[in-house]
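Curious: why these numbers?
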Amino acid sequence: MAGTVAVFGILLATPPLITHGAALPLTAPTATMTCQESGTVSWAAPGIGNEFSTIAWNAGIDFTNCTGPAVDQGRPTPVRLTEKGTELVSCNGDVSVHTGTGEITWSDGSTGTISAGVNVQSKTAGGGHGAFPITILTGNFAGHPATDDDTVTPGQSCPGLTKATLSGTLTII
């Protein structure tokens, strides 16, 4: 018991290891580059239905008007992204599963690979806003996370939706 009291007394007398600086709030990561995007997405026949189902999709996205510190430094900018994957989707409701892989082409003519997931996407009549986390796996900015933040605008009615346009931004951290 005396040993326990002595150890407890030492612990009380020892200053905490956490400093005041460690208690400061974390700042959000700074964007290396932000680009405008436009493109299309297609879903396999019979398209998006009223009930949730896993459907294959593919997209082609073009990038313009990139800004940010990496652009100021003369780094390559994204030109085009082609990607494909699957998602658990219906005409109305939240998309909880969205996975994809793709190839990104850069302004210096090189290419790299990416993987994509979903943070949040909610559809109404097949359209809506989505925020998709991307990891650049190879090539320029390899290892950097990015966010594809876009709006899906249906090109036809849902159910049976097989094609839509995309518009938004790509932000590379």
Summary: The two ends are 55 Å apart (CA to CA).
